[in-house]
Design goal:
By secondary structure, the protein is mainly α. 41% of the residues are buried. The two termini are 52 Å apart.
């Protein structure tokens, strides 16, 4: 059994006790039991399909219960889903109690706020747009209770500091729950209409489809991130210098792309390009990457093949788009003296010119065995001096503007090579300090 702190157990017990107190007035509410049973069964079914198959939580039925039922009755809607859902982590009983008590308190609060603002009359009379006001307030109350309880469990079970436990919980949940609340309101209105509950159930079909599409998108995105993370980790293990370098080049590439006004999709591609620009080093012999001392001309030629190796490695990864071109050409120079193909000027793809500037900037502002990190201002001055010959002046100017506005706060700062792995000498000997 996994150890759960005593204070976390006490916290869950207190939340459960509050949920029980919310349900106690149920006999006096004269709630329609058939509606309660139908909504509870429907919520349990949706949680099974959406929660287990799609990896999410489905709130429209729960919020429809808040709009249709008295607070004490609405608090019972989540109960069957929590009691019969499969729990894989221990302690099972504690997790079941938490899964039942937390949404019960949230939906009770939503129903109380909705009723206090006259929401049930608006639902019965299909009084739009007035019905949106109490529904919106109920959704806000629902989110506030969920966020408060989640923050409490983070603080008690995972020892997260109190000042951080609630940070961002409400802002992250408000928009998606508001969409679910709108669907729940549509269900409630149709439920109270002459068409009855059957018509209300039709709202769930498009919601389930949209949840499925959303889940598929996030799974695909997670797979993309995992692919990139695996490639970067492999390069980091082989070449100590690139530890952190790849992520910083991706960050600088994003700054340049945003300054140039590129759309979000292309900015993301540039981030991928920056992160993976050195992936071809996986094809370079490790002894050359770890060589302590100057490289021979033959060794230099071998290392200069890494852009082509990288392009071959990612050729079949379709979601990278033009990032593959940046990986191939990020060592080309505007004057045609770069590699691997000696492209010049406009022959060099725009994305490669972005990554080239970001790569050189991080090389100059990072500490290596053969050179100390230069101040940001010095690095920018050097980039500007080499603009027009080695770098695209437009990219250099964009980076300078972005740094002037936002500064340079790299997310990754681990520049040091692992113990026993020396950083490598520069290949080109360029005055800009550009890495291989």
């Amino acid at each position: 059994m996994e150890a759960v702190p005593a204070r976390a157990r006490g916290y869950v017990a207190c939340v459960a006790l509050l949920a029980v107190l919310c349900v106690l007035p149920l006999p006096a509410t004269h709630a329609p039991w058939w509606a309660l049973a139908l909504l509870a069964a429907l919520y349990a079914a949706c949680e099974h399909v959406v929660g287990r198959r799609l990896g999410g939580t489905f709130y429209p039925v729960l919020l429809a219960g808040a709009f249709l039922l008295p607070p004490a009755a609405a608090a019972l809607v989540p109960l069957p889903a929590a009691l019969f859902a499969r729990v894989e982590q221990r302690p099972v009983w504690l997790r079941r109690v938490w899964r039942a008590a937390q949404p019960s308190l949230a939906v009770w609060a939503a129903a109380r706020v909705h009723g206090a603002l006259g929401g049930r009359d608006a639902v019965v009379g299909c009084d739009f747009p007035y019905a949106l006001v109490p529904a919106g307030a109920a959704v806000l109350a629902f989110c506030l209770v969920l966020a408060a309880l989640d923050g409490g469990i983070l603080a008690t079970a995972e020892h997260v500091p109190l000042r951080r436990a609630w940070r961002g919980l409400l802002s992250r949940s408000l928009a998606p729950v508001a969409v679910h609340g709108l669907a729940g309101l549509m269900m409630a209105v149709l439920w109270r209409s002459p068409y009855g509950p059957v018509a209300a159930l039709l709202v769930l079909l498009p919601m389930c489809v949209s949840c499925w599409v959303f889940a598929q998108y996030h799974r695909e995105r997670a797979a993309h991130q995992a692919t990139i993370r695996a490639l970067v980790q492999a390069v980091d293990i082989k070449d100590g210098y690139t530890r952190g370098h790849s992520e910083r080049v991706g960050q600088a590439s994003v700054m340049i792309a945003r300054e140039l006004g590129m759309d979000d999709e292309r900015v993301e591609v540039l981030r991928f390009a920056g992160i993976l620009h050195d992936v071809g080093k996986l094809g370079v012999p490790t002894r050359l990457l770890r060589k302590d001392g100057p490289l021979t001309p033959e060794e230099r030629r071998i290392i200069e093949l890494h852009p082509e190796y990288g392009h071959e490695m990612v050729r079949g990864i379709s979601f990278l788009g033009e990032a593959r071109t940046a990986i191939l050409h990020h060592h080309e120079r505007l004057d045609g003296s770069g590699y691997p193909y000696g492209l010049a000027g406009g022959q060099i793809p725009e994305c490669a010119r972005v990554v080239a500037v970001a790569d050189a900037f991080d090389a100059m502002t990072s500490t290596r065995s053969y050179s100390r990190a230069r101040p940001v201002e010095t690095a920018v001055t050097e980039l500007e001096r080499c603009a027009g010959t080695q770098f695209d002046p437009r990219m250099v100017a964009a980076l300078a503007r972005a740094l002037g506005r936002h500064g340079w706060h790299p997310a990754v700062t681990a520049d040091e090579a692992p113990c026993g792995i020396p950083a490598q000498e520069p290949v080109t000997g360029s005055r800009s300090g550009a890495p291989r």
